[in-house]
Amino acid sequence: MSAKFAVHFIPVLVVVASAAAAAAGGNGDGQFTYQGFATANLTLDGLAAVTANGLLALTNATYQAKAHAFHPAPLRFLGETAAAANASAAVARSFSTSFVFAIVSGYDGLSDHGLAFMVAPTANLSTANAGQYLGLLNATSGAASGGASILAVELDTIMNPEFRDISSNHVGVDVNSLVSMQAQPAGYYGDGDGAFRELRLNSRKPMQVWVDYDDEAKQINVTLSPVKVSKPKKPLISQAIDLSTVMAEEMYVGFSSATGVVFTHHYVLGWSFSFDGPAPPLDISKLPVLPRVGPKPRSKVLDIVLPLATALLVAAAVAAVFFAVWRRRRFAEVREDWEDEFGPHRFAYKDLFRATDGFKERNLLGVGGFGRVYRGVLPESNLEIAVKRVSHDSRQGIREFVAEVVSIGRLRHRNLVQLLGYCRRKDELLLVYDYMANGSLDKYLYERNSTTTLHWAERLWIIKGVASGLLYLHEDWEQVVIHRDIKASNVLLDSAMKGRLGDFGLARLYDHGTDPQTTHVVGTMGYLAPELVRTGKATPLTDVFAFGVFLLEVTCGRRPIETDNDNKRVVLVDWVLEHHRNGSIFGAADPRLMGKFDAEEVSLILKLGLMCSHPLPRARPSMRKVMQYLEHGRQPAPDLSPSYVSYSMMAIMQSEGFDSYVMSEPQSTMGINTVSVGASSMTILSEGR
Ligand SMILES: *[C@@H]1O[C@H](CO)[C@@H](O)[C@H](O)[C@H]1NC(C)=O
Ligand SMILES: *[C@@H]1O[C@H](CO)[C@@H](O)[C@H](O)[C@H]1NC(C)=O
Ligand SMILES: *[C@@H]1O[C@H](CO)[C@@H](O)[C@H](O)[C@H]1NC(C)=O
Ligand SMILES: *[C@@H]1O[C@H](CO)[C@@H](O)[C@H](O)[C@H]1NC(C)=O
Ligand SMILES: *[C@@H]1O[C@H](CO)[C@@H](O)[C@H](O)[C@H]1NC(C)=O
Ligand SMILES: *[C@@H]1O[C@H](CO)[C@@H](O)[C@H](O)[C@H]1NC(C)=O
After folding, report:
1. Binding site membership: which residues?
2. 3-class secondary structure, 236
3. For the chain, does the N or the C end have fewer beta carbons within 10 angstroms?
């Protein structure tokens, strides 16, 4: 009853036990699977260790040492039935094994001795040698002792001539000797084309190996492939061998490795084994991960830095776009087709912006009726420039004006401030001039605390220079250019204290673009010729009038119109005339000269000034005539005709305002427009300083 019961249940128990063994990697029927070795119970010796994440690390950075890892229990390799019938005729069983390994060298491309899968009669390999012996054998072990030998599949990464190795990267089948029965260069045959593809064993990448023994064909096959490639159909090595003569009844299976002198890790990631059938497949995705190679912190940094850098890059790109748009707006210019012909005279706003440090206040040279003037240095040429920002709100006439600016740019005279070019923006025009190191003349004339009072010789030199410049404008250039705004503040002094006339023609900007029916009078109070006020028509002689006032201004050190202590307006021309009538014309000379001057020269200049500022245009000399007086300084001073009564009329005009004057001149032809429109439309621009 009990025997019957037992017979009935034995097969069930066997099935259960074998299933449990397989699952746990046990040894029930000699079949096992290790997806990583964390829970495995391997027998380790030497350097071998299992890492925390389940890698079997056969070697570490210890030199000339060996390592072994065995499946804990021995397996029965010889057929039981055959052994029972005739022990000497026992047949080795078919088996298959598969494992994934990686050789990771501290120096890429350079590696130590390799590793081997082995089937050994004993798990005690204490007498084996390290180094090229791979921990399998020693120098004297050779001849098989009693039939039980070591079968090994070596993955060798060093070429040892003593073992007749074929290369430093080969796979071999060894039986009790490190001289392989057969060795092949590491690689595999592609299933598709059958072509051989070489693999580098020490590439630091995991690779899979299959070892299959067929007891009927008496053949052992070794196949190698990268982990991403499934088992190739054609094995790398197919070697005829009858393992019946090699195997003992029970054999240990495992791995062996040894180090020499190069720091190398030999890892096994997973392993499966089976008798009489293919080895259970390994799930590559479940195998433990190899440690990172190379300096760890760097790769970690890369992990963090890469996404961060990407984010930064995107942010930078967005910022760059915003900046480009902002910059486009900030440096926006107005440029029209017709300006193409003026190309060379056109400056980029960006350059002017850079030159003046963004029109910073500290670069401001002065503020005038026409705009603000900034000092700057052109980025490329290092040329010092003065940039005048002139606002204009009328588009009308700008074309003519720019054409004029460009033609003015062609004027070349040592006593003119060179206009270098222009730039145009919305509602704004920028004129670029040579920089005049010593600023404007009026500063030297009127700053009472100025220690830089000009000597008479200097003043005369400046006067001659301005006269020469004005003559060039009026007569010596291809066109007649009327300055329209001659005055001390428009005379600039260069680094050599030479007088140069600036701002010529600029007054026309306010002439252009206004209602052509009315002509605005442009100029500065005190310098305006009577007929200019009346007719609004600028001529070379209206310039001469202003030049005359300028002569008196420089000689007397007084403004054209001053307010005296009794709050009464004093017109300079009248004041000098009075001195002249009283026979004391020298009394009009600037007291700061302290009498140090040539009396004849001062007399000449003052008389010339009066003559030029004559109220009647036809009584004024031309600039050429003026030049003659100046050049022959000692020739008799011009004789003043007795028509000076008219000066008082001008005095009335300039002291009591224009309204009464204009109204009292109904006979003037051009003046009618002005009168009909009324005084309110008349714009008198003055520098206001
Ligand atoms: C290598 O492994 C052996 C055995 O586990 C250990 O004693 C030795 O300290 C290890 N050496 C290094 C450098 O990790
Ligand atoms: C591991 O194997 C050894 C010997 O093979 C055995 O004594 C031990 O009990 C095993 N341990 C486990 C946890 O299986
Ligand atoms: C065992 O096999 C050998 C040869 O392989 C043979 O000589 C011998 O007779 C056999 N013995 C038995 C009991 O079959
Ligand atoms: C291994 O074999 C040697 C002799 O060859 C012996 O001294 C040693 O104790 C053995 N080791 C084990 C763990 O059995
Ligand atoms: C070499 O190994 C064999 C076993 O394979 C052992 O009998 C012999 O003593 C070893 N020789 C040395 C020098 O360790
Ligand atoms: C070994 O490879 C050969 C082809 O080279 C093949 O015919 C044979 O079936 C293979 N044996 C095993 C056990 O895979």
Report:
1. 388
2. coil
3. N
